[in-house]
Design a protein that fits this description.
Layout (H helix, E strand, L loop, with lengths): L1 H50 L3 E7 L4 H14 L3 E8 L1 H10 L4 E4 L14 E15 L7 E2 L1 H8 L17 E5 L4 H9 L10 E3 L2 H10 L3 E6 L11 E2 L1 E2 L6 H5 L6 E9 L4 H10 L2 H10 L10 E3 L5 E3 L1
Parallel strand pairs: 1-2, 1-3, 5-10, 6-7, 6-8
Antiparallel strand pairs: 3-11, 4-8, 4-9, 4-11, 12-13
Length: 315
């Protein structure tokens, strides 16, 4: 009986040893797995870090493109916290000259580089990120919402000086022009005035200031990109031309003539950061949300196309 008890005790001790060793073995596996997971996480973090964008971009030029560029830059920086983007205005001429000089990473312009003063278009790479339509902006007290193209040209060339001469109220006309380097001015002069030179008037460097002056001066008229005519804002009137409103549909079909591509130019090949931002400009977020929200039109919505000479053809 005593011998049998010793045998049983021996079996129990052997079983205990096996269980302890098994437990140790499992603990070692968990540790290895944890180590492997940690290593994988570290590798992933390292990989993610190596792909993270960082640095600074400076872009500027067209004030017509400035609101869209600023919105896109804000979103891009939110997605890439280590990136800083400085968006400046100054007009299309400034955008082209400064990117050519290497002072801007991206130069914004309403006009083709081929039409810029002292610009070597072959040295710049063109990215058409949107289309902008422009029309005359009139003070509400002028009493007009539509003009024939011929009358519009008489207004801007000084042949008529009172709105009553073209169907409006007895209010003096005050012209508000953009500076000579403005892409908005070049586009308006070319496609609304058919190349005629505007008479002297107030000259301003930014679309924001033009809008403010027109809104505060009875009888004033200037011109703005549609992005500056915000819904519910009755401080200025967006003028129809020959009975055609400056709408996305009328621009896309070619019925409304005063529009231009919004170009972003780089000097040669863009840097990796500039390329990433340009790719973001063409992303669905910008092309389907930001453009329509701010009054721009996606390039692929147009059924017509325009070359550097201004010639329009069907796509």
């Amino acid at each position: 009986m005593k011998k049998k008890s010793l045998l049983t005790l021996g079996l129990l001790l052997a079983l205990s040893v096996i269980l302890v060793l098994g437990a140790c073995g499992n603990g070692s596996g968990s540790s290895s797995s944890s180590s492997s997971s940690s290593s994988s996480s570290s590798s992933s973090s390292s990989s993610s870090s190596s792909k993270a964008l960082s640095g600074k971009l400076t872009l500027g030029g067209s004030t017509a493109l400035q609101p869209l560029a600023a919105q896109a830059a804000k979103e891009f920086m939110a997605n890439n916290p280590n990136v800083q983007i400085d968006v400046q205005g100054g007009g299309s001429g400034t955008g082209l000259s400064q990117v050519q000089a290497g002072n801007f990473d991206i130069g914004d312009s309403d006009i083709f580089a081929e039409n810029g003063k002292n610009i070597d278009a072959k040295a710049l790479t063109d990215y058409k990120v949107a289309v902008v339509a422009m029309t005359a902006a009139v003070n509400p007290k002028a009493g007009v919402t539509n003009l024939s193209k011929a009358d519009l040209q008489k207004v801007f060339t000084g042949q008529v000086t009172n709105w009553s001469q073209v169907g409006g109220k007895n209010v003096k006309i005050t012209l508000v022009n953009r500076s000579a380097s403005s892409g908005t001015r070049k586009t308006f002069d070319q496609f609304a005035l058919d190349g005629k030179t505007p008479a002297n008037g107030i000259t301003q460097d930014s679309s924001n200031t033009v809008k403010k002056i027109v809104a505060q001066t009875p009888g004033a008229i200037g011109y703005l990109a549609l992005s500056y005519f915000t819904p519910g804002d009755k401080s200025v009137v967006a003028l129809s031309i020959d009975g055609v409103q400056a709408t996305e549909a009328n621009v896309a079909s070619g019925k409304f003539p005063v529009w231009a591509y919004e170009h972003m130019y780089t000097k040669g090949k863009p840097s990796a950061l500039a390329k990433a931002f340009l790719d973001y400009m063409m992303s669905s977020t910008v092309q389907t949300k930001d453009l329509s929200a701010q009054g721009y039109i996606a390039v692929d919505k147009l059924t017509v196309q325009r070359d550097a000479t201004g010639k329009i053809t069907a796509k």
